[in-house]
Amino acid sequence: MGQPKKKIIIDTDPGIDDAMAIFVALRSPELEVIGLTTIFGNVYTTLATRNALHLLEVAGRTDIPVAEGSHLTITKGTKLRIADFVHGTDGLGNQNFAPPKGKAIEQSAATFLVQQASLYPGEVTVVALGPLTNIALALELDPDFAKKVGQIVLLGGAFAVNGNVNPAAEANIFGDPDAADLVFTSGADILAVGINITHQVVLTDTDREKLSKSKGKLAQYLCKILEVYFSYHHVAYNTAGVYLHDPTTLLAAVNPSLLTYAEGVVRVQTSGIMRGLTIFYNKKKRFGEVTEWSDKPNVKVAVTVDAPAVVELVMERLMNS
Known about the structure:
Blueprint: E1 6-12, H1 16-26, E2 31-38, H2 45-58, E3 66-67, H3 84-87, H4 109-119, E4 124-128, H5 133-141, H6 145-148, E5 151-155, H7 171-175, H8 177-184, E6 190-193, H9 195-198, E7 202-204, H10 205-213, H11 217-237, E8 241-243, H12 245-254, E9 259-268, E10 278-281, E11 299-305, H13 307-319
Parallel strand pairs: 1-2, 1-4, 2-3, 4-5, 5-6, 6-11
Antiparallel strand pairs: 7-8, 9-10, 9-11
């Protein structure tokens, strides 16, 4: 008998790199994907749900439940920032796929998260690839959720580098900064992977060629949708490749030793020009006065990544699909 599989729920806003992460998860023998929960971000929540159902259909895994998440931020904000200019208006490279046959389950994402964490206390890893609204709602729904959930591995923040929405903020945190601050200070076992890390992990034009020549069914599918994502990166970042934000975060849940981490307190700025800024307090200095930083629980923040190993794993799992 090998290791028991790690139960994971992917909270996602698909999104092209979300699609890659979901496919990599389904091809990872270490993981048992017990559900997808959906959130706004790359697209609105309704479309995120449709895309999640569609991706599970493509992968032949319609047995996995999809729970629809919040349509609003945690403070009931309706003015959402949607990144469809990065991923195509349908979120999946403007391929206009036929609607999925499946439907989301009755439960909301937050209810589903709470239920699964209660069913398998300490065993569920939530991989959060979008704004953290659903996770924050789960914490509000069940005050013990932070203790019951095994780990939350999240893509978010720009630690000591510029953001990607504006110089201060990274997209997922900016999507719902109040939710993010709530999650970071909840006391859950949290591992944050910021764009300071994911911008080091690039799938190049050459890698894409290799994917398109492979026999992998999921690789073939992804090559169809990658065009929009590549052209956005060519223009926005002047780079001959795309950043693997979501797959890197997913693989941090599979194999934490691909990254190294620092521990400390993370707070999120929730107002003003710095809204969405993530600040990491390394606890090196003990400050005298009691502040909004004192007595907050530690989280782990990724500081280095073995980028070639991550790209290789992504390639290998997609090509053998």
